[in-house]
């Protein structure tokens, strides 16, 4: 039934869902994701499993309303059911006792880094988490990350909370303290993950990133989520989503991420303002 048991607002246009999905909850591992379709009119979208509870048979999903389907999902309420829910998909994150691990979560990448940080700490690592957002109101899952970490640092772009600046600025501060970093994982916007890799590569700190290219079927059949890593084509849905950040072709990834921006913008406008968006689409078609 994929019943929504809980819904909680995290930030403007962002919410957390606890969904009944016992089979997925039993199998899910940190780093994996699901693909869902909220209803018959929604498209298939991937979402990271932010947490799972095998005993309750639930998974936790964090949804940011950035497109038509996430906006449709954001309007669903406790007691409703998600039509399709498939998972867990992707390769689990590689977890072992590394020593001191730095986990960087930018924006809604915090939801994805949470189960990884939690598992790494349970394995006996000293986990330093650095999370950030554009401003305090957009920062999510602070308490969950505090519990999952040995030490938590916070940064906001506008300085409204924590250290002023980006998570990469807080990371540089940490390195200047002389903290020996044995392993690093970064999840968030592409520019943020790329910037982290530029810091760690000359220091030879193993750095893993979680890539989120356009994804359709989640089984490696469509090829939409292809990325180039180490000069070879990989598919984020079956080979990832975790990859060696120092091997990613970031320029190619940025270009592919922007392919459907105009179409996505139009779809959102049509969802929010159907008559006006249809009129504008008609004007564009006439030219």
CATH topology of the largest domain: Rossmann fold
Strand order of the largest sheet: 10-9-8-7-11-12-15
What is the CATH class designation of the largest domain?
Alpha Beta
- The CATH architecture of the largest domain would be 3-Layer(aba) Sandwich
Give a description of the structure.
The chain has 287 residues and is an alpha/beta fold. It folds into two domains: 4-89, Translation factors (Elongation Factor Tu (Ef-tu), domain 3), CATH 2.40.30; 100-257, Nucleotide-binding domain of ferredoxin-NADP reductase (FNR) module (Rossmann fold, 3-Layer(aba) Sandwich), CATH 3.40.50.80. Helices cover 32% and strands 30% of the residues. The chain contains ten helices and 15 strands. It has helices at 22-27, 68-74, 109-122, 142-148, 167-176, 190-200, 236-239, 250-257, 261-272, 274-286; strands spanning 4-11, 14-20, 33-37, 45-53, 58-64, 84-89, 100-106, 126-133, 151-156, 163-164, 183-187, 207-210, 226-229, 232-235, 242-244. Strand 3 and strand 4 form a beta hairpin. It is globular. The model is unreliable at 281-287 (pLDDT under 50).
């Amino acid at each position: 039934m994929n019943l929504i048991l809980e819904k909680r607002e995290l930030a403007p246009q962002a919410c957390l869902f606890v969904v009944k999905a016992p089979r997925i909850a039993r199998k899910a591992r940190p780093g994996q994701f699901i693909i869902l379709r909220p209803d018959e009119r929604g498209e298939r979208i991937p979402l990271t499993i932010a947490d799972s509870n095998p005993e309750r048979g639930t998974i936790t999903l964090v949804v940011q309303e950035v497109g038509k389907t996430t906006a449709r999902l954001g309007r669903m309420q406790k007691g409703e059911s998600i039509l399709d829910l498939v998972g867990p998909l992707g390769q689990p994150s590689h977890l072992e006792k590394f020593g001191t691990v730095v986990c960087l979560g930018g924006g809604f990448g915090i939801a994805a880094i949470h189960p990884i940080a939690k598992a790494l700490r349970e394995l006996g690592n000293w986990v330093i988490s650095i999370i950030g957002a554009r401003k305090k109101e957009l920062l999510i899952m602070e308490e969950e990350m505090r519990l999952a970490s040995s030490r938590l640092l916070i940064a906001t772009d506008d300085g409204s909370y924590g250290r002023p600046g980006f998570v990469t600025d807080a990371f540089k501060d940490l390195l200047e303290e002389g903290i020996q970093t044995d392993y690093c994982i970064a999840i968030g916007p592409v520019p943020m993950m790329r910037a982290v890799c530029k810091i760690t590569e000359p220091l030879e700190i193993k750095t893993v990133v979680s890539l989120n290219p356009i994804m359709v079927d989640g089984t490696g059949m469509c090829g939409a989520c292809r990325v180039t890593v180490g000069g070879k084509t990989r598919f984020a849905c079956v080979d990832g989503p975790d990859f060696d950040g120092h091997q990613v072709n970031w320029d190619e990834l940025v270009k592919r991420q922007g392919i459907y921006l105009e179409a996505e913008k139009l779809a959102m406008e049509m969802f929010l303002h159907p008559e006006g968006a249809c009129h504008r689409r008609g004007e564009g078609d006439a030219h």
